[in-house]
Design goal:
With 236 residues, the protein is α+β, with helices and mostly antiparallel strands. The chain has nine helices and eight strands. The chain has a single domain, classed as Glutaredoxin (3-Layer(aba) Sandwich). Strand 1, helix 1 and strand 2 form a beta-alpha-beta unit.
Length: 236
């Protein structure tokens, strides 16, 4: 069974949604047969490349939130993350910026068989350590951590080799009904918008599994009752 999840690197609900998917799969009795595949859904293209802003400044510029509103919004996510064992999870005291290059890095890492590891690493770096993931030097550091060839990674990003793939990935999510991130599709049939709690995701995993793995009755001669009464086998 396959779980597809579309995310934005700097979206705090995406980092939490990623964590919740992982927990749901861990609890699922057939979790070892579930493939989790991450996809890009960039929503920070309005930020200029090469510059970063504090989360406070970004929330003010984009949504008109003042300091107290920004604290209330981000502290809620941080508190939820801590309650679910995702700590540290730093949202307010962080930087935001254009993530296009980061998504191209993730596409490159995925092409090298590092999809899940790369997304784990970038969320851990950004939200766990509050370290930047926007510039080439930041991404080359992640490449080293993942064991990717540094020169090949640099070349792929310099040439913007995966730009079209990232855009196509996001458009695919939109065709499936996504208008934001995170966006999760379970086994190609259940679309789940937003960072649903792990219990909801766990139940959907079970439902999707039951859809494709129906219980098969076993033929036997045991006693049974039906609409017309109860059968009594000769050797009950």
């Amino acid at each position: 069974m396959k779980v597809d999840i579309w995310s934005e690197v700097t979206c705090p609900w995406c980092g939490l949604g990623h964590h919740r998917v992982e927990r749901a799969v861990e609890r699922f009795e057939h979790g070892n047969q579930v493939e989790v595949v991450h996809h890009s859904f960039p929503i920070s293209g309005s930020f200029p490349e090469g510059r970063t802003f504090s989360t406070r400044e970004a929330l003010l510029r984009r949504y008109g939130m003042d300091g107290s509103q920004a604290e209330a919004a981000t502290m809620r996510v941080e508190a939820l993350a801590e309650r679910e064992g995702l700590t540290p999870y730093r949202v307010l005291d962080n930087q935001v910026g254009n993530t296009d290059l980061a998504h191209e890095f993730l596409a490159h890492a995925s092409a090298q068989g590092k999809n899940r590891a790369a997304w784990d690493a970038i969320f851990r770096t950004y939200f766990g350590k509050a370290e930047p993931v926007f510039l080439l030097k930041d991404l080359l550091k992640l490449a080293d951590e993942l064991g990717l060839d540094r020169d090949q990674t640099r070349q792929a990003l310099d040439q913007r080799r995966y730009r079209q793939q990232v855009q196509d990935d996001a458009r695919r999510a939109q065709r499936l009904g996504a208008n934001g991130a995170p966006f999760i599709v379970i086994d190609g049939r259940y679309a789940v918008p937003g960072a649903q709690d792990s219990d909801t995701l766990f139940d959907l995993l079970r439902t999707a599994w039951a859809d494709t793995h129906p219980t098969a009755p076993v033929a036997c001669d045991a006693p049974v009752c039906g609409p017309d009464g109860c059968a009594v086998p000769e050797h009950a």
